[in-house]
Each structure stands twice: as structure tokens, then as C-alpha cells.
Write a structure and sequence with these properties.
single chain; alpha/beta; Aspartate Aminotransferase, domain 2
Length: 417
Amino acid sequence: MSPPRPALPKFGTDWNSLGARMRALGQGDADWRSARTAVYIFNAGEDVLSVAKEAYAMYQSENGLGPLAFPSLKRMEEEVIGIGLGLLGGPEGACGNLTSGGSESILMAVKTCRDQAAAAGRTVVGARVVVPVSAHLAFDKACHYLGLEIVRVPLAEDRRADPGAMAEAVDANTLMLVGSAPCFPYGLIDPIEALSDLAQDRGLWLHVDACVGGYFAPFARMNGVDLPGFDFSLPGVASISADLHKYGYAAKGASTIFHRSEAQRAFQGFESGDWPGGHMKTPTAAGTRPGGAIASAWAVLHYLGEEGYREKARIVCETRARMMAAINALPDLRTYGEPQLGLFLYGSETLDTFQIYGRMLARGWFSGVVTEPRAIHQMLSPAHADVVDEYLEDLEAAVAEVRGGGLDTTPVSARYS
């Protein structure tokens, strides 16, 4: 028998009581405020969190759907897009929009590519999008919604996209190639330059998923990190997605979708007047566009500025390097690959990595996992710099427990839902 369905209370409840109930509900949540969460949250410090929160609250009731009613939001969005294009090598005429998150940005890129191809007379029903196996599942979702076929291609030995294998997967029905900067599972930047050459050679649309790195990689590069090319400076790159609510440190949900030209973006939006309510035009999938998300992104970008973002990127890169070196020095543990930004993996080839994960979870450390290889996934924020020693001490104890035998029954699965 199913539990009773929640019902709207007959009488209202005062905020003090509701606030207490909400805090009680959150007692079992991951403790991100203490920097013990290495996924979902991007903690740049209390000052940045405060700016994001206050800016969001200031515009929480305004609606980006109505630029005539709220020209402030239109101006803020235009400034955010201009800043992003400046960071990502946007050429003259490049453009973009804010979206609700990386999934919507990716959906808009795939939809724009499909509709542009249809307008040029291509058959798009069942057309193909070729991606490395490490590409985000948002591409599968977009293809599912849009009637396209996703083709996932094995990676090269370094766990980056294999341009040769992707070239072999391209056929006459292929519309789009995808590369990541970096990919979520491994934190590695795909060889976008080679994919750009392939896209130009075959007349294909190349989308770069920089949802993780779009507001991180430019500042890491300014700090001297030798990153490969991945943005609009490569002529084959048609569109880029980049999340402001990740390493842009804005409130959720805020992402950006960028296009090389206005002519290209023309196929992104929706427009119709075929109802009694008058003409309607939306640039993205959303109707209502929360003003708070736009305002928060604008405010945090201006609060931190270039120097602030460079400092945050420096802290994260140094923290990652420090953690990787310490983990590699521990018996039975190793890191994987050579990530250059804020994500990295570690695991064991002699012990059960997921047993180690369970022991760390029991100590209050929440992170992701990947299945190939079986590894613990760390997505670092500036706040993690303050807890590295505590984390490593707990990790050493967790490894010793697993090495000593005995099963940890904490359930582990690679799920983000």
C-alpha cells in the first residue's frame, strides 16, 4: 500500500517554523558548506556565495521572457554573453544566450545544428551525432528529444577523444561532431584542434562541450597552464556550451550557449503567433527565464573580475596537484591521466576502490565515481584547499581499513540522479 499523498495544509505556517523544518530536512544532505562535497557544488567562498545569493534575490521575481518589461535583464544577459565570448575567442559576429544549465545549452546546440541542416535540404530524421564515449549524456538526451541518432566512439589510450576513430564513424548522415573541454568523467581536454580539422574537412558542425571548463580554462591559461586549443580560435568550432553555475560560481541554473554567427543562431529559437495571445519569441527552450539566475551570473562575473577568477583557478589547480601527488605517494593508490584543471580520478589496482569510496562516504566525504576505470571522481572548488589535510588523513585511514579486510556495506553506484 502506497503512503498517503501529501496535501496542502488548510492553514499557513509561520516562517520561523517552516525554516526550522527545512533545516531539519537538510540534516541528511551532503555537507558542502564544510567543503566535504566534490560534486554538484562549486564553493568559491562565503563572499562569492553571498553576492550570488543577494543578486538572485534582487531579481527573483523578474522574468527574462519579457525584455520589453525588464530591459535590465536583457542588458545583463548581453554583458554576460559578451564576457563569455571574450574569454572563449569569439570572433566578430559571434553571439549567444543564457540557458538554465548545460543540458539546455547542449540541447540548443544540437537543435540549431539539426534545423540549419534541414533548412539546407538535408534529411535530418535519424541523422547522426558522433561523440567520444566520454561525452556527457546530455547529448543522448538531446538526440532522443530531437529524433537523431547518437554514435559513441571509443577513446584513445589516453582517455581522450580519438579523432581517427571519430572520422571512421562519420558517414553521409552525420551532422555533428562533439569534443569536451574537459570531459566530465576524466577531466581531460579532447584534441579539439584535430576535431576542428576533421569538421572542416567533412563539412560538419563541431560543438565543444566546455560546460565544466568554459569559465575555468581561460583563467588557468592566463596563469601559465599550457592548455591545448579548444575554443573559437579554432576555425572548425561552430558552438560552445559553458556553465556559469560551475566554475563561473553563479547561482543555479545558469549556463551559456555560444554560436559563431548570428546566421547560425537564427535556427536556435522559437517564434510563433498562432494563438490568441499574440506573438511569442523565445531564444532558448525555456519560456519563463528566471531573472535571478541572469542577475546572479552578471553580479558574480563583475564581483570577481579577471584577477578574482585567476586566483580561484590558481587555488583549484594547486589543490588538485597537491592532492594528486599525495595520493600517488600512498601505497595501493594511484591517480589516472594528466588532468590540468579541477577534476581528477584516483583508485586502486590492488584494493576494491568502491570499498574505499564507501569508507570515505561514511566519514562524510561525498564525491562521484566512474566505472572505467573503477575510480573515485573529484571535482574541486577553491574551498577544498582548506580541507586537503583532513581529507588525506581520512583517506589513509580508509585505505588501511580496506587493506585490513572486512566488507563495507555502503551501497555505491555511478549515478547522478
